[in-house]
Amino acid sequence: MHPIAELAALIHPMPAPGTPDPDDILADMREDVDRKRKEYADDLEATAFGTDTDPLIVALQKAKTEKEEADRRIRNLLAYAREFHPPRRYSLNELGEASGYTFSGVRTAYGDQEIAQVQGEIGRTPRRTADEREGETT
Predict the structure, then answer these.
(1) Of the candidate ranges 64-68, 108-112, 125-129, the one whose mean pLDDT is the lowest
(2) DSSP letter, residue 88
(3) Distance of CA 90 to the CA centre of its chain
């Protein structure tokens, strides 16, 4: 297998038999993975060639960018859960477990920037002011 195809296979693994439920969608899932692998390999090859960078380094850079994007989405979702829902709808433990943060980390995972981003996206103001957030104990 070509190294770029191997990288695409690592990024987009095939579902194992018995994984999807119902089993009859396995062929569709494998076809979808094949398509994603090809798209990824084509993009990786073009980027590596265009920047004269090793494909593995490009793949790592892409993975890092995706990780940073996922972290941003988690912070925005935490801001949404804590600042745009009624108080105590979600416990800090529940949000922490779901997001991979400790319960105390949930409080500091997001800030004014994420709150403003959520506010801009959903068109609502947060239920608490910055001063109220500053003085919170739980």
Answers:
(1) 125-129
(2) T
(3) 20
Instruction: For residue range 96-119, list pLDDT tens digits in order.
Output: 999 999 999 999 999 999 999 999
Question: What is the rounded distance in angstroms from the CA atom of residue 109 to the CA atom of residue 120?
Answer: 19
CB 37 within 8 A of CB 5: yes
Residue with tokens 């593995």: 56
At CB < 8 A and 24+ separation, what contacts does 21-30 make? none
Whole-angstrom Cα distance, residue 62 to residue 83? 31
Helix (H) and strand (E) counts in the chain:
7, 0
The C-alpha angle 39, 29, 1, rounded to 5 degrees, equals 50
Residues 18-65: tens digit of each pLDDT: 776 666 788 888 899 999 999 999 999 999 999 999 999 999 999 999
How far out from the chain centre does Cα 54 lie? 25
In whole angstroms, what separates CA 18 from the centre of its chain? 26
Q: Which distant-in-sequence residues (6+ apart) come within 8 Å of 12 by Cβ?
A: 33, 36, 37, 40
Q: Could you identify the residue written with the tokens 């994984």?
A: 19
